[in-house]
Specification:
Chain lengths: 194, 128
């Protein structure tokens, strides 16, 4: 029997920190069901993980849930990285949660998730950096651009704290600096609706 | 059963004008405002059981906002609260870097009244 090639995936990784939750709510307000899996890495305390999911699910057409270890990523779903562990995608398909040292004071690290993506002939990638302190995500954006993805960062004037998008921009590998509404439109345009 | 959203905020600011403004903004919305003028008073309220949204000034005499948050962490008083900075400093100092997982937002003064009420109501809903 002929082996079917695994279906292609569009994978969007959004990195967000202080000031990011309200940007996320704008991005996912009236957000349609799109042909992509979205992974959100938000720096936050563990006890509000499910609250963030609940908020995003209120107005989004996507299913929203906390990512679990060994879970395959599916299109039409938003996976929120749980606090206190790092998240990487194995083979661009499967969530792997693991304990390791904090990276730049945080766990999960945006860089760890973004740099786990692997170039292949069929998958498409989008990396997004939102408001936050520090430079987590800059290395990840560089990696996503290197493997052929599209890279976005929040416009500095729309950020509560613009250090993270600025650090990403300073890599020279950000395709577009956009306000939250523009990020939403760009993700929908790239992925397409289901 | 319908979840009852948390309806309490604590404003920590040595500027009594800000404390009054926040009461005028939030109390008509049915949100209880605990107004304290220092980091020590904030810690005392938390030790007495306050849980809700904490709006924390950065620059305060004796114990600033960052030191207060670090003390909250040291004393295990963080859980059940959502902490946002409310500050005149439009660019945060490096202190935030180490505790950013615990600070959900950074709101700069002066702020738009409607905007801050909407944002804080959203964070109260996180604690429902």
């Amino acid at each position: 029997m002929e082996n079917a090639a695994p279906p292609n995936r569009t994978i969007v990784v959004i990195g967000s920190s202080t000031g990011g939750p309200r940007t996320l709510e704008t991005i996912f307000s009236r957000f349609p069901l799109i042909d992509a899996a979205i992974v959100i890495v938000q720096h936050m305390p563990l006890y509000i993980n499910s609250s963030l999911c609940r908020h995003l699910a209120k107005t989004s057409g996507m299913e929203v849930r906390i990512g679990e270890d060994s879970e395959p990523v599916e299109h039409g779903t938003i996976y929120v990285a749980p606090s206190d562990v790092h998240l990487k995608l194995v083979g661009n398909r499967t969530i792997r949660l693991f304990n390791d040292e904090k990276v730049q004071y945080v766990r999960p690290s945006i860089d760890v998730t973004m740099t786990s993506l692997e170039r292949n002939s069929g998958d498409r990638f989008v990396g997004v950096i939102l408001s936050g302190m520090g430079s987590d995500g800059a290395q990840g954006i560089r990696h996503i651009k290197t493997i052929g993805g599209t890279t976005l960062a929040q416009t500095l004037r729309t950020c509560a704290i613009h250090a993270m998008p600025r650090a990403a921009f300073e890599t020279g590998r950000v395709d577009h600096m956009l306000p939250p509404e523009g990020i939403r439109e760009q993700i929908i345009r790239i992925a397409g609706t289901l | 059963m319908t979840e009852v959203p948390c309806q309490r905020i604590m404003v920590v600011d040595d500027d009594v004008f800000i404390l009054e403004v926040m009461k005028e903004l939030f109390e008509p919305e049915g949100i209880e405002v605990v107004a304290v003028e220092s980091g020590d008073a904030c810690i005392a309220e938390l030790e007495n059981g306050f849980r809700g949204v904490v709006l924390m000034d950065v620059m305060m005499p004796r114990k600033d906002g960052w030191e207060t948050i670090k003390e909250m962490l040291d004393l295990d008083l963080m859980e059940g609260n959502v902490v946002a900075m409310l500050t005149a400093k439009d660019v945060p100092d490096g202190e935030l870097e180490q505790i950013k997982e615990h600070v959900i937002d950074y709101i700069t003064k002066p702020f738009e009244a409607d905007e801050i009420v909407t944002v804080v109501k959203g964070y109260l809903d996180y604690l429902a």
